[in-house]
Amino acid sequence: DFGHSSELAFVVEPSDDIAVQEQPLILYCQVEGIQPITITWRKNGAMIVDSENAFMLANGSLYVSRFQRVRGDGSSDEGEYDCMAQNHYGLVVSRKAKIQAATMSDFHIHPQNAVVEEGGVARFQCQIHGLPEPVILWQKNRMPVNTDNERYTLLPKGVLQITGLRAEDSGIFHCVATNIANVKFSREARLTVSGSHSTVYKDPMILVGPENLTLTVHQTAVLECIATGNPRPIVSWSRLDGRPIGVEGIQVLGTGNLMISDLSVQHSGIYVCAANKPGTRVRRTAQGRLVVQAPAEFVQHPQSISRPVGTTAIFTCVAQGEPPPQITWLRNGQILETSDHIKLKNNNSTLSIYGINQADEAIYQCIAENSAGSTQASARLTVLWAEGLPGPPQSVRAETVSATTIQVSWEEPLQNTKEIIGYVLHIRKAADPVEMEYQEAVSKSTFQQLVTDLEPSTSYSFYIKAYTSRGASKASEVTVVSTLGEVPAMPSLFIKVINSTAVQAMWEPSIKLGQHEGFKLYYRKVHLSQYTGPVLLASNVTAYNITHLDASMVYEVKLLAYNQHGDGNSTVRFVSLRETVERTVLNPPCDCMKDEQNNKTSATGIIIGIHIGVTCIIFCVLFLMFGYRGRLLMCKNVQEQLSTPQIPRSQRSAAGIILNGAARRDRDERDLNGKQLDMNELERLFPASPCQEQQDQAITPTHSPSAAHADTQVSTLPLDEFSIIEEQPDPSQKSPRGGSPAAPAPNHGPTNEG
To answer: Which CATH architecture has domain 104-284?
Structure first.
């Protein structure tokens, strides 16, 4: 059905034509559809009123009794005509038909006298413009040229070629141009053939090469190429892009002219004419461009559709041609204006109408047009509307819950609520186009919806529709609200020890952080409560060096990102500089390059230096491995001798282990900040030597029988970092450093020790 609207469509449309002065002209227009149908005509966009000169026939065609290029009042019958048809379903407009008057100008190129030696090549040309294109014929001595003579070649553009000249070819030549408007004769030219055929060598030369041509599909192209030389050159053709010319529809006229019949777009390209001296590589070339245009035609027509009120209607119209056609949409014959709910996409190939209502019911036309021609197709949109549908939902409200969540609520429509089967919430970023909208379905008994997975600091629009089995209600009022801002996420933090008094804090930029203005860096000794900082860093900074540190201390480094909404959660790392100092003392770096420096000029010295360096590295690695293994064995022996029970949680006393005099208080503060210190990390940061473990046996509490079957955990902590303090019921009594603990006191909960 070609996608045409069955209610109203064209069967015959007016076509381009060339009219003859003072002769009648008929423009055809035939429409089918549901009666009554009214047909009117326009010229250059203005309505044509019936008159003695132009009036409409009973079948809808337009009749011009005496076509005139210029009338007495200055008007003209030339122009673009189109036919309009209308019924109660809508209005359609035909393609534009271009009407021109038949004309013929004077010759602007006449044939010229020529004197050519026998055996040579003669060429005459005359040129004239006209509508339609004049047919040019040649006469010799006032008689038509004998076209049966294969030495005579007539080209469509008014060229006469004569090859292998003989004495009898001498004479007087002129051309005759003819079309429906007139007949005209050119001036005469004399051809003189002189002497006998020359045997002097002449290089090949192209007298006339191909011209650039622009034609339309199915026409015929003639590419001229005429060459001279002695011996007579061989003319050949090729394409500049290397593609084969082919054989179908290809013909050679005369000695080297290329004719291509029934042109297609694939024939477009640059054609090269070559004149070759026989038996040699000597050649001359000329080239011309052929452009083949194709009128616009539809690959996919728009289809008539029916849609309920409030839904989306989509029409698709795909056209092809050369050059690529431009697509324009009409609504009931008028240029379609886009708006918030009418969108054109894909180079106007797709028409989308969102939230349709009864005012959108019309006939929509797709006009495809390029320099080679135009075409049109139409389709009708029917809007389905049922009586008794619910009214729009009332009192739509939207409240911000968080940076990614908004609560939307509403009330029932005011009328026709019994048949409601549910609601649909329409959601869209306020800055996005309508086609980016998405929906969420809600049951009929629910009057609120929590919309999640939204973007922080972003405005969203919401509206509601009530649905029944017969269709949707009109949309509610639109409400717009913005989500809250969001603090940045936790950054990833890495600590690198530079030397015994400096470390480098590094982190990676990431989009997961969200919008942030910069970073805040804090650091402190772990036994202190006060941080140094914050050090404010820009958002593009990814590293910071912390210097002037105490080589014997363990440090806590904290990093967080911040923005206008506040500080994000922090990332905490611990670093021990004491281990760096110990490694420097116990494992001094060997001077592996000393021998190599002393033997720079000797190949033997270089080899010895390499061997010494490798040996030194091996001994360093072995020393570290055996030293670490020995420490693990000593720790294991001590742990087997110790059996400190884990006191049940319910029987723990208020006695606390004080880390540098402030550990419990620091731990409580860190707990409030949502951070926990990993025991494994503490054990790594505070390694115990075997001698210290022997001292710890003196302060280990007596093994309780009640904990005989409980899991035993032995913590080895250096005495220079810890003190054991036992709280007695009498606050004035305190255990001396290193003394034996008394009986455990009742558990009064966690105690902050300072």
So the answer is: Sandwich (2.60)
